[in-house]
Amino acid sequence: MLKKERQEYIIKQINLHNKVLSTDLSERLGVSEDTIRRDLKALSKSGKILKVHGGALSKTLYSDTREDEIYAYTEKVRIANKTLNLLQNGMYILIGGGTTIREFLKILPKDLHLTFITVSLTAATELLNYTNYEIIFLGGKISRSTRFCAGGETIRQLADVRADLCILGTNAIDLDGGLSDSDYEAVQVKKAMINASSKVAILTISEKLGSRERFRIKNTAEIDYLITELHPNDPLMTEYALNIKRII
């Protein structure tokens, strides 16, 4: 594979999954980690990605960007609008972070009274734009690159929470592999968020269906709502509808 093709693949994976690990890219592309590190350095220098220790992040994941810079923006807005139908007055909602979640938080109704509980600094900041919601931010060790709390203290706080609904994005979802992520600490927090909630809604663009990362979060059978940009009766959703309680 030529350098240009390799770097295009890397950008595609970062856009799709929000983050990548150098070890995974090395394995998938059949090149050394040194080669991957040079690619990531070049892509970071050109402003296309955010290089972090051990891999890279999408630049749009945790910062405000123009609509035309957000991967699959139209699809994510459609998912955000569908998610509004799950909201009911008085709910306690555990919410994660990510670009689809951010689009959802931008269009929240102003006639409901809700309590949002989050470990995402970006989500908490977005919620401060509203006066009709209570916001509970669960602290712990904050990742500078992801602005997401993780670690034992965060998980201990989540153990004392009982939310009506958990709304999460996902880096990968597969019928056999379930929900998965490449970040071990993030996986533990997401598990705790799901365990602390009566219902779970997963938001994802359909392009992520059938993908799998290193660490499993939950089986698909434990998802109450799977929300994509597709119609629930789309052929791509047929097998997922057999495992998940409701496709939206």
TrEMBL record:
Origin: domain of life: Bacteria
Keywords assigned: DNA-binding, Repressor, Transcription, Transcription regulation
Keyword DNA-binding among record annotations: yes
SUPFAM superfamilies found in the cross-reference section: NagB/RpiA/CoA transferase-like, Winged helix' DNA-binding domain
Pfam families named in the record: DeoRC, HTH_DeoR
Single Gene Ontology MF annotation: DNA-binding transcription factor activity
Domain HTH deoR-type, first and last residues per copy: 3-58
Protein name: DeoR/GlpR family transcriptional regulator of sugar metabolism
Lineage: Bacteria, Pseudomonadati, Bacteroidota, Cytophagia, Cytophagales
